[in-house]
Write the structure tokens for this entry.
Amino acid sequence: MAKARIEISEADDERSDGGEKRRSERTPLVVRVDYTTVDSFFSEFTANINEGGLFIEAESPPPSGTAVLLQFKLPGEEEPIRVHGRVVWTSARQGSEGPGMGIEFEDLDRVARARIDQVVRNLRRDSSPGRLVRVRRDAS
């Protein structure tokens, strides 16, 4: 199974050079994501996604290094994605990105990887700066 990687040099979102250390740009996406840690269950919302992970808005995120099991539905899809991940950084800032955590996907299977990559490509293609993309689901 392929393992997605986000390159981040520091565990904290407050970077001294102000730059981001990820391979792929973030794409805005707001969907509900359920996740579990070793001893807790949570349901929050994403703020963005890229091919290697996502940002989850959370008032009290678990610490960096925490393993999580994620489940979320991508826009236009019926079947949820279930994937293991790890908290790679947390943020308490109230700026453009509120408090939350950056999650790195781990051990994505080929099908989940293709589904995520396709949605990210579609969102990037369909969006422009300052424009909110709404995905409508056709009634079947």
